[in-house]
Design a protein that fits this description.
By secondary structure, the protein is mostly helical. It is built from 10 helices and no strands. Helix 2 runs antiparallel to helix 3 (about 40-55) and helix 8 crosses helix 10. The chain starts with a helix and ends with a helix. Mean pLDDT is about 80; it is low at about 90-115.
Length: about 190
């Protein structure tokens, strides 16, 4: 069944459309929610809440071609995850010891980082991202995975643009350290 047909079905038979959407997209959307929560149970709760919102707001969706339905649902999952974290006061940003220095630091992808990523499975990388501190994980996911600008992230999370950039730099550094440690451990085995 095509996305257009599922979108039409959402308006007429919510239960059948829900089952189809869940079967088709649940795995991908759960991974999106997990990137923000770092907790499988919370990710599942967020997915369920987001799918309910999808059904309730089906009339607001307008089909714009292949991928538009998934994109619309994914945005709902991201917003649900962020709102959930805010409502439980979990969106704690890590302290900034020297924001000016970190925010102006130029961060470049090195060949070493690329070679690290070539050696790790997507599942392990996702788990490592999930283990980052809350603020790091949110900013990293919004910037590196979702493609939002630091200005947009700042507005979404209620932080400054420089804080977003700083959190991203720190998340990237922490993730690189985790990857390097993993490489060292696997080379010993």
């Amino acid at each position: 069944m095509s996305d257009r047909e599922i979108a039409d079905l959402l308006r007429t038979d919510e239960e059948a459309a829900f089952r189809l959407l869940y079967r088709r997209y649940a795995g991908q959307l759960r991974a999106v929610a997990y990137r923000y929560t770092g907790d499988s149970d919370k990710a599942e709760d967020i997915l369920q809440e987001a799918m309910i919102k999808v059904c309730r707001h089906a009339d607001s969706f307008s089909y714009r071609g292949d991928g538009s339905l998934y994109g619309w649902i994914k945005r709902i999952v991201v917003h649900t995850a962020l709102n959930s974290l805010k409502s439980f006061h979990e969106a704690r940003m890590c302290p900034m010891d020297d924001l000016t220095e970190v925010a102006t630091e130029e961060v470049e992808d090195s060949v070493e980082e690329v070679s690290l990523l070539d050696r790790i499975s997507p599942e392990l990388l996702l788990r490592m991202i999930g283990e980052l501190p809350e603020g790091y994980r949110q900013v990293f996911s919004l910037y590196a995975v979702e493609g939002h600008s630091h200005k947009e992230i700042g507005a979404m999370l209620g932080i400054g643009e420089r804080s977003s950039a700083s959190q991203y730099c720190r998340a990237k550094k922490r993730l690189k350290e985790k990857l390097e440690l993993w490489i060292q451990e696997t080379e010993r085995e």
